[in-house]
Design a protein that fits this description.
The protein has a 5-stranded parallel beta sheet with strand order 2-3-4-1-5. The chain has helices at residues 2-15, 22-31, 36-65, 88-92, 98-101, 116-129, 139-152, 155-163, 180-195, 220-230, and strands spanning 105-109, 134-138, 167-173, 201-206, 234-238. With 267 residues, the protein is an alpha/beta fold. The chain is built from 10 helices and 5 strands; from the N terminus they run H-H-H-H-H-E-H-E-H-H-E-H-E-H-E. 26% of the residues are buried.
């Protein structure tokens, strides 16, 4: 029992970045001739500190991710029971985060309201809960940031910021056209992420199938190369079905205007 408690303390000390003192803590416990109950209490203190640190890290990652916090999109909030298809288990397996550890990109393709953005955000939130840095932005925002970076000479730092997150979510590809300079920056970002180490994935959502994406970029040769990198090892979900939007819509019929005058009573 005592040995396992020492291991718990050592593991927590490593997590708290004070592993160099773990041996001294154990020596102190032995020198004080502490009871198993006292040693367990010390281990619980260290475990509490680890939990607090973990919660702080997750909270910070969520704030920096640009994912919604007041009404978060989660896998628990997505109705998987209505999903059908031969490979539906692949969709239901998304919470395992196997894609990011296998360095696979993900694309959700389909009409509005079928849950593409919800699933992308839920995946990003699960990454944060597992202490993986995540960043969400719409394609229009990404385009504007590239334009501003080119205008003010911040191309390098802008691309660096997009390479660092383990999970990068780009929502609504096809809502804007990238000019030539922005197109090159986009594909530089894709190329560098393709070669980075560690867990990594880019998640795309779009109403248009990938073979139509060329319409929204301005450099055909670069596009072909980048699309090869994006979909070299990827999972593409082609989604169909009725829109979720308006499910809670309540329609109330009312009538306005003057009504019929009350009849006049004659004596």
């Amino acid at each position: 029992m005592t040995e396992s408690v020492f291991e718990r303390i050592s593991q927590c000390a490593d997590e708290l970045k004070i592993g160099v003192y773990a041996g001294r803590i154990n020596d102190f416990i032995n020198s004080e001739d502490m009871s198993p109950e006292q040693i367990d209490a010390i281990a619980k203190v260290f475990e509490h500190l680890c939990e607090q640190k973990n919660e702080t890290i997750i909270s910070t990652l969520l704030r920096m991710s640009r994912l919604p916090l007041k009404e978060p999109k989660t896998f628990e909030g997505f109705d998987f029971s209505i999903v059908r298809g031969k490979q539906v288990d692949t969709l239901k397996n998304l919470p395992s985060l196997s894609a990011i550890h296998a360095r696979k990109n993900i694309a959700f393709i389909g009409p509005q309201g079928v849950g593409k953005t919800h699933l992308a955000m839920a995946y990003g939130r699960e990454c944060c809960n597992n202490r993986l840095k995540t960043y969400f932005l719409k394609a229009t925002e990404r385009n504007q940031k590239f334009v501003d970076a080119a205008r003010y000479g911040h191309e390098g730092s802008t691309i660096n910021g997009l390479v660092k997150p383990s999970c990068l979510i780009i929502d609504e590809i096809g809502r804007c056209v990238f000019n030539r300079e922005s197109t090159r920056m986009f594909f530089d970002m894709v190329d560098r992420r393709y070669n980075k180490e560690g867990p990594s994935t880019i998640i795309f959502t779009s109403n248009r199938s990938p073979d139509k994406w060329g319409e929204y970029f301005s450099e055909d040769s670069s596009l072909l190369c980048a699309l090869d990198r994006i979909f070299d090892d990827a999972v593409v979900f082609m989604m169909k079905g009725d829109s979720y939007r308006g499910k809670k819509l309540e329609t109330i019929a009312i009538e306005t205007g003057r009504g019929t005058s009350a009849p006049t009573v004659t004596k």
